[in-house]
Write a structure and sequence with these properties.
The protein contains eight helices and no strands. The chain starts with a helix and ends with a helix. By secondary structure, it is mainly α. The chain is extended, with a radius of gyration of 26 Å. Helices cover 77% and strands 0% of the residues.
């Protein structure tokens, strides 16, 4: 319950920060914290597959799409001013966090055989990966392609529309020419414009 309360607090604070951040890039960082806390909550519910998918799909793919859109919309503006090098200041805390996570992984890996032997007898959720168990691949796939099929397809359609929009925004600005004659006319006009620009 303590872990659930802490994760719930992080989720609420990060969600509020996403919509109140002064800059879009700060909102993306807050969303990354939100996704990470949600993945940890999945781990506490013995839903390892959902936690890994949360990290890979949302934190790895969706956030990259957000960053690409922010970078695209920020193009053409004045370059950002270079500030002081803050990498040496955050190197220590980053190394400490990595070491703590590594120690946690070693501790969890050392307890895997004990958990596996008692999982079928003591766990109400059942062993990870078994069918009809919360968080298992079979249970997730069954819910995704039966009960939640329509929201899944709608989400795929929305992402496809977003990808098409990004391609159109970042694509080539060459005017559309439906025929070869029109292409020759456009090429001649562009050549004449370049010659006039050179003469001026």
């Amino acid at each position: 319950m303590v872990a659930f309360a802490l994760l719930a607090l992080v989720l609420i604070v990060s969600a509020i920060f996403v919509i109140t951040a002064p800059k879009a890039i700060y909102s993306v960082v807050g969303l990354l914290v939100h996704f990470a806390a949600l993945a940890i909550m999945y781990f506490t519910l013995a839903a390892e597959f959902l936690a890994v998918i949360q990290i890979i799909v949302y934190s790895g793919a969706i956030l990259m799409l957000f960053l690409f859109v922010i970078a695209l919309l920020s193009s053409g503006v004045s370059p950002l001013a270079l500030g002081p090098n803050r990498l040496p200041k955050i190197a220590g805390p980053a190394i400490a966090v990595v070491l703590v996570l590594l120690a946690f992984c070693v501790y969890a890996a050392a307890r895997v055989p004990v958990v596996a032997t008692h999982a079928a007898a003591s766990s109400a959720a059942g062993p990870v990966g078994a069918a009809n168990v919360f968080g298992s691949v079979a249970d997730f796939g069954k819910a995704l392609f039966t009960v939640d099929l329509l929201p899944f397809e709608i989400t795929a359609f929305i992402l496809m529309v977003a990808v098409i929009g990004v391609i159109l925004l970042a694509g080539d600005a060459t005017p559309y020419v439906p025929t070869r004659r029109r292409a020759r006319l456009v090429e001649r006009d562009m050549r004449e414009a370049l010659i006039r620009a050179g003469e001026e």
